[in-house]
Write a structure and sequence with these properties.
Layout lengths: L1 E3 L6 H11 L3 E3 L3 E2 L14 E2 L2 H9 L3 E7 L2 E6 H9 L3 E5 L2 H10 L5 E5 L3 H10 L4 H16 L6 E4 L3 H16 L6 H6 L10
Parallel strand pairs: 1-7, 1-8, 2-7, 3-4, 8-9
Antiparallel strand pairs: 3-6, 5-6
Helix pairs in contact: 1-7
Bound molecules: adenosine-5'-diphosphate and guanosine-5'-monophosphate.
Length: 200
């Protein structure tokens, strides 16, 4: 499950809400060249890497997708996603809109969700509330305008007004997606080999 939103749109809080709600969701940790913010832990929030380390990972094909956002490199290690899938859990990827498009191209079965703020005023208030400096808010607002323009390409659009409701809606999307026939054909096939006449 890929969740995108403009910066301040709620990706981080929605992700933690999902992870708390149900153990079937797991965060696939991504890597970045940006500096660690206070309170962030290496390997939990991000793998913090240097630019040469990032470029090496990219050149070696170890990134599923990557993007440069606000001057820093970000990328999803293939390993992170595979580790989550291997445990039968749903990888939650909170990445930018370009990354979301790359993932959808590679894995059409991925489900993409765009979180839309109720309005831009609220987005600015949330960015300020997070402690972003005014110049950062201005840059993020401009980027938000262009990101929102591509929201129509996502599978689902969720308006992040009341947080508990947003979390419930994103969880409901995952719930229904896992029930899609195309994702469960192996279960249907298994009926073909069940119970023979001689077993009766
Ligand atoms: P992102 O990860 O997309 O940049 P965050 O999850 O950091 O966004 O959210 C930005 C700020 O807005 C945070 O301080 C967060 O607590 C707050 N926030 C997010 N969603 C809501 C909401 N629905 N109601 C109130 N505050 C919210
Ligand atoms: P921040 O620096 O605020 O944590 O994140 C900045 C932006 O980069 C956010 O939109 C975030 O979702 C995005 N991002 C984080 N990790 C990745 C990643 O691995 N790939 C891509 N494409 N974007 C990412």
């Amino acid at each position: 499950m890929v969740i995108s939103a403009p910066s301040g749109g709620g990706k981080t809080v929605v992700r933690s809400g999902l992870l708390k709600l149900n153990r079937k969701f797991a965060f696939s940790v991504t890597c970045t060249t940006r500096a660690r913010r206070p309170g962030e832990t290496d390997g939990k929030d991000y793998y913090f890497v240097t630019v040469p380390q990032f470029l090496k990972l990219r050149a070696e094909g170890k990134l599923l997708e990557w993007a440069k956002v606000h001057g820093n490199y970000y990328g999803t290690p293939v390993k992170s996603v595979m580790a989550v899938l291997g445990k039968g859990r749903i990888p939650v990827m909170t990445i930018d809109v370009k990354g979301a498009r790359s993932v959808k191209k590679l894995f059409p079965e991925a489900v993409t969700v765009f979180l839309l703020p109720p309005d831009l005023k609220t987005l600015v208030q949330r960015l300020r509330g997070r402690g972003e400096a005014p110049e950062n808010v201005a840059v993020r607002l401009e980027t938000a305008r262009s990101e929102i323009k591509v929201a129509s390409g996502f599978d689902y659009l969720v308006i992040n007004d009341r947080l508990p409701e947003t979390i419930r809606e994103v969880a409901a999307i995952a719930e229904l997606e896992t029930l899609k026939t195309a994702r469960n054909l192996d279960k249907v096939r298994s009926f073909g080999t069940q119970l023979d006449r001689k077993d009766l």
